[in-house]
């Protein structure tokens, strides 16, 4: 591929993301009530979880080697994973299942844009992401005793990259869960299941709490541990951050390739609703 | 009465159009239990509390079952009421020759039929893991379950009433549900709560929704103080239902239907 072609592809994708963000922003500010409702709900969830962590640590000093303070950082990363995953990935995946189910995908496929990229980036809820995520995550930030945490700058940088790779892997996992809609006509509950596995494994149990086989399975085949458990472990220096970085990078790379292959396969099997 | 059974049956059968979705629902419940057991096994190892893994697993299985059966955890009835009001479809039910709340309750039961079946399986597995010590435990379980149903029913109606006053009350509803999960003992058994909070919660309606029925079947159940718990539960069951229905009737009078 020539450099100019590559530039043109990048430019087109940038324009799609720009248009998607603008469209999502207009939609989000049109229903201000929803934003407030989301803020209230997310803040209540966070406060209830902070209460839960306090109750749990009323009877113990550590869980799987994590102190109360470590667990709060873990919860902070889990919340970031949730908001990133929901507003950048899950909304689009849910829309994809609805489009296939109702036959709207035909319209998308006729557009002169890369379909896969468009479908997975057409609704980026940036505004709601910040509005809803800010108050609850701030509550966690103020609950953490930061000076008591031993976080090195190297581990922090590795942690940020692991988080990004984890978010990509988690997105692919949920995207694959949506594809049965091409054959079955519906996959909402399958997507919910995938999202639930991601949330369930990431919000309560630190990486060190899982057995080795489970760490492997939930870090590769079902890559739901990476964005939260791997990140927290790397940032806190509980496991070698370089090792976790490499692991997360390889899984994300494989995940992106699988996503493309799976999409091509699904599209070949798509029986259009209108033709 | 037959018409409500028909509504339940019809709403339940709709779910069978997509068998893979049923499998996903069942798998979701299994995953939920697996992670719960995993977390508590780690917690028991770390904390050294005097509760065994089968005991805590049985508690959560029964608690989840009770929460699903009585709709105290996920508020299926309030969610349905909310959706119907928000979309304006509630007018369709108002003009039908059925009573509004029983008809909506029947739809919620039918649509969530699979959850209810799983709830019963949960309770059965919980009982198998930790059989109750005496028949008295079973008797108290049934009494507390009926009480839990009464409180949860009122709680669903109260939440549903919110939708008659706000354009979108799902945020408020979700906020309430997040705290309900903690205070009812659905996430942590109340005996693990710090002492002042535990004592305060005892006089609230929350323990009656999940904790008391689930704990009555556990081996830690003691008859001491059970009369007071039951009395508090009955008080809240009656009071909340009276409050819920008076608020619902009052709010429905102000409801402006679309298209009529």
TrEMBL record, chain B:
<protein>
    <recommendedName>
        <fullName>ABC transporter permease</fullName>
    </recommendedName>
</protein>
<feature type="transmembrane region" description="Helical">
    <location>
        <begin position="217"/>
        <end position="244"/>
    </location>
</feature>
<feature type="transmembrane region" description="Helical">
    <location>
        <begin position="56"/>
        <end position="77"/>
    </location>
</feature>
<feature type="transmembrane region" description="Helical">
    <location>
        <begin position="116"/>
        <end position="132"/>
    </location>
</feature>
<feature type="transmembrane region" description="Helical">
    <location>
        <begin position="138"/>
        <end position="158"/>
    </location>
</feature>
<keyword id="KW-1133">Transmembrane helix</keyword>
<keyword id="KW-0472">Membrane</keyword>
<keyword id="KW-0812">Transmembrane</keyword>
<feature type="transmembrane region" description="Helical">
    <location>
        <begin position="20"/>
        <end position="44"/>
    </location>
</feature>
């Amino acid at each position: 591929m020539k450099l100019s072609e590559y530039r043109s592809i990048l430019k087109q994708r940038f324009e799609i993301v720009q248009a998607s963000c603008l469209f999502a922003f207009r939609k989000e500010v049109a229903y201000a009530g929803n934003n407030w409702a989301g803020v209230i709900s997310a803040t209540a969830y966070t406060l209830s979880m902070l209460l839960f962590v306090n109750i749990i640590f009323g009877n113990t000093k550590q869980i799987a080697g994590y102190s109360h303070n470590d667990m709060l950082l873990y919860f902070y990363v889990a919340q970031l994973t949730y908001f990133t995953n929901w507003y950048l990935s899950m909304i689009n995946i849910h829309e994809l299942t609805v489009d296939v189910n109702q036959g709207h995908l035909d319209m998308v496929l006729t557009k002169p844009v890369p379909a896969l990229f468009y479908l997975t980036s057409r609704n980026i809820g940036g505004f709601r992401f910040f509005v809803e995520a800010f108050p609850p995550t701030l509550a966690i930030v103020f609950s953490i005793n930061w000076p008591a945490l031993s976080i090195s700058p190297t581990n922090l940088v590795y942690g940020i990259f692991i988080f990004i790779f984890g978010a990509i892997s988690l997105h692919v996992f949920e995207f694959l869960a949506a594809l049965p809609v091409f054959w079955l006509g519906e996959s909402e509950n399958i997507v919910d299941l995938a999202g639930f596995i991601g949330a369930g494994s990431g919000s309560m149990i630190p990486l060190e709490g899982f057995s080795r086989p489970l760490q492997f399975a939930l870090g590769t085949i079902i890559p739901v541990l990476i964005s939260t458990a791997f990140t927290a472990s790397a940032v806190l220096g509980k496991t070698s951050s370089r090792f976790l970085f490499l692991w997360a990078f390889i899984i994300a790379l494989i995940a992106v390739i699988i996503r493309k292959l799976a999409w091509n396969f699904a599209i070949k099997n798509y029986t259009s609703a209108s033709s | 009465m037959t018409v409500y059974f028909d509504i339940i049956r019809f709403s339940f059968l709709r779910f069978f159009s997509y068998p893979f979705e049923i499998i996903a629902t069942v798998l979701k419940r299994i995953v939920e239990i697996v992670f719960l057991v995993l977390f508590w096994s780690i917690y028991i190892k770390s904390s050294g509390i005097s509760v065994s893994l089968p005991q805590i697993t049985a508690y959560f299985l029964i608690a989840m079952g009770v929460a699903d059966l009585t709709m105290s955890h996920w508020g299926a009835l309030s969610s349905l009421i909310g959706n119907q009001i928000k979309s304006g479809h509630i007018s369709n039910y108002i003009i039908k020759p059925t009573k509004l709340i029983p008809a909506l309750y029947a739809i919620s039961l039918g649509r969530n039929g699979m959850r209810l079946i799983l709830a019963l399986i949960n309770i059965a597995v919980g009982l198998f893991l930790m059989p109750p010590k005496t028949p008295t435990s079973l008797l108290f379980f049934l009494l507390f379950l009926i009480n839990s149903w009464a409180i949860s029913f009122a709680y669903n109606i109260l939440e549903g009433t919110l939708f008659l006053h706000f354009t979108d009350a799902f945020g408020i509803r979700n906020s309430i549900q997040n705290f309900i999960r903690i205070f009812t003992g659905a996430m942590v058994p109340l005996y693990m709560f710090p002492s002042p909070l535990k004592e305060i919660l005892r006089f609230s309606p929350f323990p009656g929704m999940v904790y008391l029925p689930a704990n009555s079947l556990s081996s830690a159940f003691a008859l001491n103080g059970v009369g007071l718990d039951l009395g508090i539960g009955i008080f809240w069951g009656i009071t909340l239902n009276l409050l819920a229905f008076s608020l619902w009737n009052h709010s429905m009078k102000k409801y402006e239907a679309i298209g009529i």
